Amino acid sequence: MRRREFIVFIGSTTAAWPLMARAQRSDRLRGLGVLMNYAEGDPEGAVRFAALRDRLRTLGWVDGSNVQIEARWAAGRGTSPPT
User: Does residue 81 belong to any structural domain of this protein?
Assistant: First the structure.
């Protein structure tokens, strides 16, 4: 009976090994793109972008640690195609 228990243990450990290895990867850096409808030097745009980063930080997403935030500034240009 012990032999069967040992074989089941080895089989389940071998099957679960990839899942455990994937769960332990915390070094993955995710990307987040943000399109701001302000000019890059606009003070209000900077305040709003800082508020976004602060809110993400409270949720556990730290820029440069586990998420890479990349901002693009539209500077008030419309996004609709020309007619």
Answer: no
Task: Tell me whether residue 36 is in a domain.
Answer: yes
In a domain, 78, yes or no: no
Confidence of residue 28 (pLDDT cuts 50, 70, 90): confident
Report d(CA 48, CA 56) in Å as an integer: 12
| Tokens encoding 10 | 């080895």
- Domain assignment present for 66: yes
Residue with tokens 């899942």: 19
- pTM over 0.90, yes/no: no
Q: What's the total number of domains in the chain?
A: 1
Of residues 33, 45, 32, 31, the one with CA closest to residue 75: 45
SS3 readout for the chain? CHHHHHHHHHHHHHHHHHHHHHHCCCCCCEEEEEEECCCCCCHHHHHHHHHHHHHHHHCCCCECCCEEEEEEECCCCCCCCCC
